[in-house]
C-alpha cells in the first residue's frame, strides 16, 4: 500500500514504511481551509489544517478569494510512503482514526519532474472535500494566520503544524512552490516576533518548534 502525505504526514508520519518517494500529485491545490477540532484546535476554538481542493473546482469557485498563483498552480508536493504488506490493516486503521475529522480516502497517482509516467500509481490520499462538515473555506490570509497562531489542540499548537510543514517541504522538495503556505508561514512568524520582543527570543522560540530530523528522503527533487 502506498500513501501520499501533503500535510503533517510529511514531517510526522508516525507509521512504519519500507520505501518513500518525494513527488507531487496533479490537479489539486493545498489550502489551510479545513477546521481542526481534534488535533490542532478544539470545538470552542478550531484550528486550521490543510486539505486539497480539485483545481477545476478551485478555479471555478474560489479564485476571487485566493489570489496566489505560480507555474505550479495545479500540483501539490508531498511524500509517498510504501507501507509493508504485514502492516497495511493496522496502518489503515490508524490513519482512518488520525484523519477522521472530515477526511475521506482517494486514490491518486504520484509524479516526479521530467516524466509523465507516475512513480506511484493509485496512492491513498486523505482529502477533506469542500462539502465535508469541517470545511472552513477561504478567509483573508491575515485572519487565517491569526487563527493558526492562537489555536491549540490535543496534538499541540496550530502554528507548530504550519511551521513544520513549511520547513519540511523546503527540505524534501526545494523546487516546489506553495505561495499560500509560505505566505501564511511569514505572517505567523511576524506574530511570533511581536510576542517574542526580540530576534534572539524569536529564534529561540522557533528552534523549540521545528522538528530537525525528517524520516522522509531529503535529496533535492
Automatic annotation (TrEMBL):
EC code(s) of this entry: 4.3.2.7
Protein's organism: Linnemannia gamsii
Keyword terms: Lyase
Stated name of the protein: glutathione-specific gamma-glutamylcyclotransferase
Keyword Lyase: yes
Annotated PANTHER family: CATION TRANSPORT PROTEIN CHAC-RELATED, GLUTATHIONE-SPECIFIC GAMMA-GLUTAMYLCYCLOTRANSFERASE 2
InterPro entries attached to this UniProt entry: ChaC (IPR006840), GGCT-like (IPR013024)
Enzyme class, UniProt record, top EC level: lyase
Phylogenetic classification of the source organism: Eukaryota, Fungi, Fungi incertae sedis, Mucoromycota, Mortierellomycotina
Amino acid at each position: 500500500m502506498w500513501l501520499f502525505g501533503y500535510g503533517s504526514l510529511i514531517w510526522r508520519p508516525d507509521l512504519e514504511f519500507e520505501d518513500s518517494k518525494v513527488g507531487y500529485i496533479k490537479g489539486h491545490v493545498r489550502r489551510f481551509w479545513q477546521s481542526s477540532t481534534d488535533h490542532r484546535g478544539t470545538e470552542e476554538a478550531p484550528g486550521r489544517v490543510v486539505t486539497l481542493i480539485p483545481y477545476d473546482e478551485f478555479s471555478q469557485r474560489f479564485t476571487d478569494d485566493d489570489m496566489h498563483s505560480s507555474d505550479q498552480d495545479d500540483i501539490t508536493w508531498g511524500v509517498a510512503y510504501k507501507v509493508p504488506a504485514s502492516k497495511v490493516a493496522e496502518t489503515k486503521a490508524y490513519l482512518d482514526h488520525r484523519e477522521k475529522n472530515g477526511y475521506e480516502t482517494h486514490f491518486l497517482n504520484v509524479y516526479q519532474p521530467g516524466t509523465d509516467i507516475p512513480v506511484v500509481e493509485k496512492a491513498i490520499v486523505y482529502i477533506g472535500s469542500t462539502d465535508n462538515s469541517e470545511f472552513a473555506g477561504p478567509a483573508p490570509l491575515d485572519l487565517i494566520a491569526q487563527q493558526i497562531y492562537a489555536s491549540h489542540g490535543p496534538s499541540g499548537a496550530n502554528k507548530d503544524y504550519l511551521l513544520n510543514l513549511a520547513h519540511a517541504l523546503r527540505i524534501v522538495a526545494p523546487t516546489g512552490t506553495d505561495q499560500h503556505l509560505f505566505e501564511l508561514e511569514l505572517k505567523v512568524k511576524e506574530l511570533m516576533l511581536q510576542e517574542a520582543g526580540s530576534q534572539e527570543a524569536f529564534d529561540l522560540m522557533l528552534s523549540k518548534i521545528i522538528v530537525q530530523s525528517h524520516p522522509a528522503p531529503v535529496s533535492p527533487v
